[in-house]
Amino acid sequence: MNEVLTGLSGGFGVALMPLNLLLVLIGCFAGTLIGALPGIGPINGVAILLPIAYSMGLPPESALILLAGIYYGAEYGGRISSILLNVPGDAGAVMTTLDGNPMAKRGEAGRALSISAVASFVGGTIAVILMSLFGPFLAKFALTFTPADYVALMVFAFASLSSLVGKNQVKTLMGAAIGLMLATVGIDANTGVPRYTGGIPDILAGFDFLVVVIGFFGMAELIHLVEQQVSGKLKLLPIGKSFVTWKDLMQIRWTMLRSSIIGFIIGVLPGVGASVASAVTYGTEMRMAGEDRKKFGTGDPRGLAAPEAGNNAAAGGAMVPMLTLGIPGSGTTAILLGALMLFNVTPGPMMFEQRPEIAWGLIASMYIGNLALLVINLPLVGLFARMLTIPQKYLSPLIAVLAFIGVYSVVGNPFDLLLIIGFGIFGWILRKLEFSLAPIILGFVLGHLFEDNLRRALSISRGDWSILISSWESIGLYVMAVLIVILPVLVSYRNKRKA
Amino acid sequence: MKKLFAASVVMASCFFGSAHAADIKKPECIAPAKPGGGFDLTCRVAQGGIGDKLGNPMQVSFMPGGIGAVAITLFNTTRTDDPNAIVAFSSGSLLNIATGKYGEWTENDVRFLATVGADFGAVIVRADSEFKTLDDLMNKVKADESSLAIGAGGSVGSQDWMKAALLLKAVDRDPRKMIYVAYDGGGDALTGLLGGSIDVYTGDIGEMTAHLETGQLRVLAVMSPDRLPAPFADIPTTKELGYDAEWTIIRGFYMGKNVSDDAYDKWVAAFKEAYGSEEFAKIQHDKGLLPLNIAGKDLDDNVKERIQKLRAIAKEAGLIQ
């Protein structure tokens, strides 16, 4: 414990130097703006700005602090377009649309933005605290997580989503199945055989995640808006001056705490990122809400706070394996890892001994960055909310242009622009049929992870299925998955009998 | 909507479509992948290493899609004679050609130009593994090829799988009976190795620099023809240990099939000049590559021979009929 405190105080010494303080503020602000653009999330933000940071000739710890600031800033910013436009900026922000956007539609954009800012702050800060205290221990735990355990985790994630979102459970399941089917496209890693690629070389490597999100959410939403505009059904959104209240905070305090811890643990596991964390936390909160469950999806503050605390905590958690083991836990941390190597810093246990100013400076800057984000974001809530007053005829083309540029700048293949249009039309048709689109995205993300890990596990066991229940972690997760499905049924049955 | 799309297509073609000028007026290096990977790195070495030999600054552009298939298709349909552009390739691309992943396009549809360096396969285990030497490992494989789990970052039929298959073939065991676990990239595979899910990781030596001093891993052998320079000088090669399993990851460039000899020779000359310079050696080293400098006809022959070998191995391993 002493080590941690000494390290941290040294770290704050580095992070509080005027230059580094300025850089973390600039990074957070720029990150928020980058994250707010549909299609450009933390990965692209950091990837685009890495060469710039390198060429500025900053000392390594300062450059990293700048990049890390952009990383959390973009995680924060992703919620803005989710709430205001129903277009998630990145994968982790998909669940944020479910309750955030209905609030904005009620004229509570300011309240939604400020609640999510607070939830993000709590999630981010709890993650940093847990990281400083238990980082190395947790990294070792993450290593013991085998492919079979990941399968159990995915089953748990599916279970916590099973009755989620959408009034019609059959349609929710069908949506998830569509997502799963999309996830099977591309070269199969275990046999090397191209699946469902139809001879099109552009999709040999599968659909890019960004393309699926922007297509199903961004484009579908746009077509929907244009349709409403043409048919004259478009309602002007009420813009009330609303803000987070003390009552809101009291209502969501336990939600934020639970979601932060769950999000952090999921974030620590390599390969499982903010999207899984936000899905699991949302599902968990919905289950915990009991009879209030029906309010989720209609603009409930808890449904907004859970994924926001969860995805920001996961972003912090993903730093743990990178800093302590030199193994990136997510796409963004892989780029940060590349940045460390660029500055001739070797991440891993040695870094805390050899270059403490970098390791602890980075951690201290996360404390400061989270605070900075809260301070920057709360006053700007009114400004962001006013985005909705932009007339629809300007806003729709603007979103379209941003989405196209976002996808093209990241993926760089014109074929993907056709794909987002195709997915957009498909998504719009599904919307007309009253499908909820979130299960499709989640099916796509979880499907990839589920299949990859299931087949890894079965390769390791030579096809013996018992490997799936061979560890306590797995069994625990399966038990939780069963409980999460049957508990609400049991509770409501008992309540009925009492009544 | 339509207009918007048209606009972005126009933007896209401005980005890609360099004019067919007679000289290397607008040197362009195409990385057929997203930014940040090995192809990006290959282009960066060219940009820094031969940039000043071309007269004009070199631009790097990205053309992801189908593990390089999109780029090779483009250079066989519309840009077959573009004198300005070079496209990055690696042994992985050669393997894709050999196994027919690029459809109708083969090694005879492009002109191989020059290399920027190499990396080599490595056989890696945990520090506390029962395998202290490569012999320990190979004896176990000989006794039963499916007694241990080998994993790496690529799918079955990829370079990473090929390295494992070659090891099995070196002791006359059937690669098809191997327990191979396909991870999503080297980082994931390393996690699997450290966590005990797999017993052996067939990775690359370049990525091991960062892990050599941590003491968590042991490199049993490197799959290079000769011993490598420091910090890898203490690691034996598969060849000296008596196993015929070599895997060189070659990194370089190709051009369109119909590029004039004049343009091709200019590029070759620029590369050959750079090979002699200290800056080039430094950039090569800084990017984690080991020296392997071949340009022009020599490379074209070298690559075609490699692909023939790969075809033979792929056929034996049951990857192609």
TrEMBL record, chain A:
Top-rank taxon: Bacteria
InterPro entries: DUF112_TM
Keywords: Membrane, Transmembrane, Transmembrane helix
Keyword Transmembrane: yes
Signal sequence, start to end: none
Ranges for domain DUF112: 21-442
Transmembrane feature ranges: 12-40, 112-135, 141-161, 173-191, 203-226, 261-282, 325-346, 358-378, 398-426, 433-450, 475-493
Keyword match Nucleotide-binding: no
Protein name: Tripartite tricarboxylate transporter permease
TrEMBL record, chain B:
Family according to the record: Belongs to the UPF0065 (bug) family.
Lineage start: Bacteria, Pseudomonadati, Pseudomonadota, Alphaproteobacteria, Rhodospirillales
Classification via InterPro entries: BUG, Bug_dom1
CDD domains the record matches: PBP2_Bug_TTT
Alphabetic keyword roster: Signal
Gene source species: Thalassospira aquimaris
Stretch forming the signal peptide: 1-21
Identification of the protein by name: Tripartite tricarboxylate transporter substrate-binding protein
PANTHER family, sorted: TRICARBOXYLATE-BINDING PROTEIN (PTHR42928), UPF0065 PROTEIN YFLP (PTHR42928:SF3)
